[in-house]
Amino acid sequence: MGILGRAVAAAVLAAAAAVGTIGTAAGAVLPPPGETSPGRQARAWLPEPSGPYPIGTTAVHLTDTAREDPWHPGQRRELMISLWYPTSRPAAGDDRAPYMEPAAGRHFDGPDGVGLLNYGTTPGRTDWSAIRTHARRDAPALPGGPRPVVLYSPGLGDPRTWGTALVEDLASRGYLVVTVDHTYEASEVAFPGGDLAPSVLPGMLGQPGLDVGAVLRKAMDTRVADTRFVLDQLAALGERPGLPAGVAGALDLGRIGMVGQSAGGFTALQTMHDDPRIAAGINMDGQLHFPGPDGHTGVFLPSVAEDGLDRPFLLMGTGSEDSGGYRDQPGWNALWRHSTGWHADVTLTGSRHGSYTDAQPLLPQLARQGVLGADQLRKDVGDIRPGRAELATRSYVASFFDRWLRGQDDHLLDGPSARFPEMAYER
Description:
It contains twelve helices and 15 strands. It is of the alpha/beta class. The strands form three sheets. An eleven-stranded mixed beta sheet has the order 3-4-1-2-6-5-9-10-13-14-15. It has a two-stranded antiparallel ribbon with strand order 7-8. Strand 11 (290-291) and strand 12 (299-300) form a beta hairpin. Helix 4 packs across helix 12. Mean pLDDT is 89; it is low at 1-38.
């Protein structure tokens, strides 16, 4: 999903769709007030992780002293990442880390936040920071590592928290997962000390004559540079004071995978193309092409699509109009034809672009409390039952990384599965 203001012209919306990053709020009708009383904020819950391990999490502030911020010239590039990993004791009560920091949650739920711009939720109706994860903040890592590492990249405009259900599930299965915020592109990034960095994109994308393709290419270049910098920093985590005990030693940097949704899926495969440290990647509904040079006609293929990949990757499509299988998208088709590494393509029938994100478990709960209407909910996550979508996503992602990072094959990815008839499969 992308972050686009309501005043963006239809031509800009069509151009942004070329990377699978369209926001739903342009032209969206806000739902009427729900049954909750005035002033009462809606609440929601994340699904329980399915693995055997309790989860810990910690946030890390990084500064790339060698790189100027591309969105704010004159200052160094700063990022926030979170690490999610097995720990020894489950979180309970106030030990459970919040889904979003309070300032970030308020902005996400405001008139300029992604809650409205991407998903059509009514501003001021949801207490996002009151949602609790299943992870104990700053817990020590469980002995027994090192563990395979998986990076997670969110969609354009989405914060790194927007894939927490999947991230927690991977951590509960024994992975160390690193989530990355792309500062000034993400809806908002909360830094230590209370500073909040909101996205610059809503203002930019409303400018007349803007070359949307150039902006999106800049965003992708920045994302790849951010991710490669994070990989560099993971190798030096042991030198950082204040990191929870055992976390740095739990990283197996010889077994790294990456998964992302929408622009995050594009980021995963493009970074994999550019950086051999990533051994396997999953693209969840992220198109691999840009608008043409004038922002309206033709497409521009990135190097990952033109060159292909020589390592394993999985494409996960949805039932959205501009998604489907690899034959339905020029970038996916080119990648498929040019790749020599193992690859497969699955499409989740009845899903929509938000189905591989936390929109799938959270928005149906919020819709029941009047935060968004039924039509908007279908645009966001389709008609598939939330529990089935969540189970399918977790199962296919875990199967892929177990196979290529752990050498454990449950054969789910060998072909169509009777367990998941809603998943169309191609090899």
